[in-house]
Structure formats: C-alpha cells, structure tokens
C-alpha cells in the first residue's frame, strides 16, 4: 500500500480561555491560560514521544496558544524552530481566532538518544527561530538566534530583538513519572510604551516566587482572578478573554496535489495490484484513503 504524509492545519476539540489583564497601573499587558486540554489533544497524537521531545513540543505549542491572544483580525503567526542540528525542526502556528497547531519534523522524531537529553541539549548552542507574522496581504519575517537554549525564553527574545518590546513568556508543564500530562499553563507579559523596564523584572520575580501562581489565577469567577492578580502584582484590571484550541482543517481534497506528485508508474502499479493509496496527516492523525476508482480517474 502506498502511503503519503501531509502537514496540514487541523479540528477543534475544546476551547481554553485566555484571560487578558493590565497590571502595574496599566503599564504591563499580562495574559494567562490553562491550556491543559489543548496539550492533551496534541499529546494524544504523539503518544510515543520521549519526555524531552514531549516538553519541547509542549512548550512551543503552549507559547503559541497564549500568543494567539495577541493577534487581531485575520492575523496569523507561524513559528519554525531550527535546532543546532539543522535537520531537526519544530513547527507551530497560531491564528487570531485561537486556532493552534504544532509538530516535530520526521528527522527530529527519528533522532536517537533523545530520551537522555535535556531540552537545552536538544536545542544546542546555535538554534534559530523564524517567525512569519501578519495577514495574507501584509506579512513580515524575522529570524533570531536562541541564546538561552530555551523555547519560551527565546521566543520572548524574538520580541525583544524583532519588535524592541520587552516581553516575558512562561510555560509550566507538569508530567507524571510515566510522561502523562498532569497540567499545562502559560503566562505572557509585555511592557506597554513608556513603562520602565524594571517592571518586567519584577513580574518575573513574582512568578518565580509563586510556584502555585496558576492555581491562584485560574479562578472560576473573573472577579476572583482579578483579586488574585491584584494580590500578586499590586493592582490589576481584567480587560477581556479569548479562546485557544487545537485545530486541524485538513481534508481529502488537500491531498490530491500529492497524488499528482506521484509518477504515472507508481499510480499504474497501485491500480494493477488493486492497492489503495493512504494519505496521513501528521498533525491531527487522520488517514484519507484513495480507492481504486479514484485512482483510475486520476490516471
């Protein structure tokens, strides 16, 4: 049986709320999210991943999920992380409507000894981040290095290098001994124009000093979250919410182009052997089957 692979965009499973707030006399934009379900959806499609790769993918997707809350209209943000081994890459994408997807490329998935490496070792000293951001008619591309060898710290560094905007990203992913996901949360803080730089350092210190910060912030009532923010950061005002969810919009029609990429001999051989052709989406795990009748029409 002939098999094809296609990296596409992917099906809403559940929505996770991004809470948006202003703190420190409205000088800092601060967002936070419990995206546990979103990562469960991602990990369900990557069950055999060793723990270091699971954290690498999880932190990338978690960061993109909260950054989706910064996008507007029909904006989209595409992220490509190239590790020090240039064949090893991580891809993720976020849209303004909260749709998020991400995956590791085949070369990274097939790499050996990843179970024994830390996330820092996997990234290495010469990793690179490429970001494409904007709408279809107005996009810009930026490439930055990864001096911290850390996914969230270096995505935050992208904002500093590319936008000259001091930014803090924090992702907390808890796995049990067997590698199953217990919880996932993310926090994003960015200085607004005119705010003194030391305020962002104070936010970092408060987050590090409160390991249970997300249990305080993720309250059922918005007023409770606002009160928790005020207790932590001195003053706060919640200004809105948005959702973030795993999404893959793949369809059978997307794979016709890949069928046409097969040689005439390959298609003819499949027809002669009465074999179907399978096309597999690496993001959502769906498999699309092209039967004999469809291939004969194509041929």
UniProtKB/TrEMBL annotation:
One of its GO terms (biological process) is protein refolding. Coiled coil: none annotated. It holds the Pfam family HSP33. Transmembrane segments: none annotated. Keywords: Chaperone, Cytoplasm, Disulfide bond, Redox-active center, Zinc. InterPro entries: Heat_shock_Hsp33, Heat_shock_Hsp33_C, Heat_shock_Hsp33_N. It comes from the Bacteria. GO terms for cellular component: cytoplasm. GO terms for molecular function: protein folding chaperone; unfolded protein binding. This is Hsp33 family molecular chaperone HslO. The lineage of its organism: Bacteria, Bacillati, Bacillota, Bacilli, Bacillales.
